[in-house]
Design brief:
The structure is a homodimer. In chain A, helix 13 runs parallel beside helix 15. The mean pLDDT of chain A is 90. The first copy, chain A, has 15 helices and 16 strands. Helix content of chain A is 41%, strand content 14%. Chain A is of the alpha/beta class. The first copy, chain A, starts with a helix and ends with a helix. In chain A, strands 4-11-10-9-8-5-6-7 form an eight-stranded mixed β-sheet, sandwiched between helices. The first copy, chain A, has a four-stranded antiparallel β-sheet with strand order 12-13-16-15. The longest helix of chain A has 27 residues, at 361-387. Chains A and B meet through helix 4, helix 5, helix 7, helix 8 and helix 11 of A and helix 4, helix 5, helix 7, helix 8 and helix 11 of B.
């Protein structure tokens, strides 16, 4: 990359991160020449590009300053206000459409929430796969019956110690990804016709699973930063016979919201008193942007009513399809359901991941991954702010790698996603995150990929499409 | 192994296979000395052991003859006569118990139907796993979205050509084992409360899946050699509103029954006329003891109403958890259900199996495997006949590797399985193969392991336990 481009990228990031704030001076050209060992022409070229993007502006005889708009964070999306009646769920067709788009890798990947493969430790993992094959020999072909590979269960329990309480290996079961964990949890505690309270918006595959199982979704208003509104939940519990609650307190997909610990504690207490099981999706929990790994709601569970679900699909090895569920008092029933659903999970991936975790490299990898994802999310926020229409609200994720965008009402994201598809850009339109078809003017952006000019261009295109009459 | 033991095993097998029949003379001791380059003492030792087992008997001054009882096949089990009302299903606890037993490999493995690992091509497979890891590199970590790895889909379609019509790759989807294929099929065509017609006995995991999904099982009388009784099915169709039919025309587990082609054709026609989908379990279809690979019912399907399910778990690589479903007109719905259930199946196993199949080694492997399994089944039949009580009926499987035993009514196999467990022997008691708790005096024996004195001893123990008052 040319040096002026590097300098441009570095300072765009600094501005996005708030390291320099609106109105503050940029380093002088002379100072930058010294720092970067570069010519004034190079620095001026970088600054000109930053100015072109509206991030900085020149003041005559005074140098460059961060422009007022640049550091200004866009407004957050509003707290959701879904209908207060349970709905039967029908989002399947839209999701299949998006996934089909993302099979074609030539589309710009803003739709499905996959981490870029270059962020994952493919080399050490492939060595562990090869080694596991050699070590297991013939046993690589054998079933590993539920609860799964004991070494892997031990490593997962050990990993969970970082958030304090930790999981009990004897209550934990290996699944084929987090989605199987969640659906087994749902099937363990609810039946067709039952009402399940969920966040609004919520991850579409959950909605689809409920759709197929004939369960009714009760969408609870959800704050874009603090998660599910517990007062609203309490009201709903009085009005409806809620059979279970399913949510992601740590970085809801798509919001990136983080429920404060005090709320988690209240949630678990509230549900516990009513004897309502909580199915907790913690798949993004390790991807926190703050200092500390947030606790899951499971850490506040004293009654065994929390069914904790997670996986390695967003952080380490999507292709392995290895997740886990720690089912509290529902563990025996979940074990039975696993046997009925897929019987066992693949043998070699379990052994390879156990060996990789054993080395301790996972925690180091996560530290690097979190820095990268936080950076990518910030770039996406900035670009969305630059290119999306006036009045667009953007979430402030505190972890994970999805961004939630609330456009002005006139912009219909189902139509927008179709238009973007024609331009080779994959998007996840808002309504697929709602059982009741809400969020017609919202959009989820996946920030799984390192920031490039290519992504900037895609955002610009989406912004332009917003102005085109559907 | 000592030579006299080898000779004993060889002739026990010859008798089992009917190569020498009751009343026929065994080769003379002198002849055998010549053939085997052995001493008369060795031959006499082998013959003495065969005599001890009641397989041959000495006639004074005339030599040895195959004894009358030896070649006498036991009676087959009766055609089942389950209750004609749909039942809700509850077999989960028993199955978990059996699987837990089989986790402990120190138990003699007559319970769960796994093929012995030594019968599977572990060495070439492990080379293909390692190679796939190298070839894929970083891509080994990526999701392979439904329908799955295209090379594997192509190989599966190619493999299916051997039975004539073959599967359409564009209607086929990779699943996490055959069980996921079957449960997705069930969920695609039936809901809670619906009636599904099944064979009686039928594979317990199917019953469990139906139990959890709240579907009602209608057990149809099933012939131990010809499969489901189609007249009984026709009667049931008049009486009940049947939503779907699920069966294994090729080698039902546990019966090993093989539905004749004319019956398959009639079955598909009958159901097609009524618009009832058929979910076909063909997991054992490649393990035929006869010359030709039997056609599945799918081969007779003209309306796209047959949902064909199979996997590599019984024939090649159980640990890979790779199956497939070819859903006819239900394919789009099954694709959606896959996305809701486990999203995708593990990446590396799909690539490794595709590469292995590409070499053509699978067909060669299957030829060897079929010979081994047929031999193991015959040994098990013989041993059961030797050790089980008078009046025991034994199935004559035409493929697969499970044997169905019908004891005299007084023998309760749930109690028998518990007693055997205490003796270190894992058994699958009859009632877990029935929604209505039938088959209390029946037992499934897995013949997945090469015949050894160890298995002979286990059968002897089970036989003794039959005589112990519960």
């Amino acid at each position: 990359m040319y040096l002026y481009r590097e300098i441009e990228a570095e300072w765009a990031a600094n501005i996005a991160k708030g390291l320099v704030r609106p109105g503050e001076a940029m380093p002088s050209v002379r100072e930058m020449c010294r720092r970067k060992q570069a010519s004034p022409a190079t620095i001026l070229a970088a600054y000109a590009r930053l100015e072109g993007k509206g991030l900085i502006q020149a003041k005559p005889r005074s140098g460059y300053y961060v422009s007022a708009k640049a550091g200004h964070l866009p407004e957050e999306p509003r707290i959701s206000s879904p209908s207060s009646a349970p709905t039967s769920v029908q989002v399947g067709d839209w999701v299949m459409r998006m996934l089909r788009r993302d099979i074609h890798r030539d589309q710009t990947p803003l739709g499905a929430a996959f981490p870029a493969l270059e962020l994952l430790p493919s080399l050490p993992l492939s060595r562990h796969y090869a080694k596991a094959g050699r070590v297991l020999g013939r046993e690589a072909l054998a079933y590993v019956l539920p609860p799964g590979n004991p070494d892997l269960l031990r490593q997962i329990a050990r990993h969970s110690w970082q958030w304090g309480a930790g999981l009990l290996p004897e209550e934990t079961l290996i699944t084929s990804g987090c989605l199987e964990a969640l659906t087994l949890g749902l099937r363990a505690v609810a039946r067709a016709g039952d009402i399940v309270a969920i966040e609004s918006p919520t991850y579409f595959a959950i909605l689809q699973a409920m759709e197929n199982l004939g369960m009714r979704a009760l969408e609870i208003p959800t704050h874009p930063r603090k998660g599910m509104d517990l007062d609203a939940l309490a009201t709903a519990m009085k009005k409806h016979s809620i059979r279970a609650c399913l949510l992601a307190p740590n970085f809801n997909n798509p919001l990136g919201s983080l429920m404060p610990d005090s709320h988690k504690s209240r949630l678990v207490h509230m549900l516990g008193k009513a004897g309502i099981p909580l199915i907790e999706d913690d798949i993004y929990g390790d991807l926190h942007f703050g200092e500390k790994r947030p606790k899951p709601a499971k850490a506040f569970d004293r009654k065994g009513l929390v069914i904790y679900c997670a996986s390695f699909s967003k952080t380490l090895d999507p292709g392995a399809r290895i997740g886990w569920v720690s089912g509290g008092k529902f563990h025996p029933q979940i074990m039975r359901l696993k046997v009925m659903n897929t019987l066992v999970s693949a043998t070699l991936p379990q052994a390879a991941l156990a060996a990789y975790l054993e080395t301790g490299a996972y925690e180091k990898h996560l530290r690097r991954l979190r820095v990268a994802l936080k950076d990518q999310v910030q770039h996406m926020v900035m670009a969305a702010q630059r290119h999306f229409p006036e009045g667009t609200r953007i979430s402030r994720p505190q972890g994970g790698f999805t961004l939630w965008v609330e456009f002005p009402q006139r912009i219909q994201t189902l139509a927008l996603a179709e238009a973007a598809e024609r331009e080779g850009i994959s998007l996840a339109p808002g309504p697929i995150f709602s059982a009741g078809g809400h969020f017609r003017h919202c959009l989820r952006l996946s920030c799984g990929h390192p920031w490039t000019a290519y992504l900037e261009e895609a955002l610009r295109t989406v912004g332009k499409l917003c102005h085109t009459p559907g």
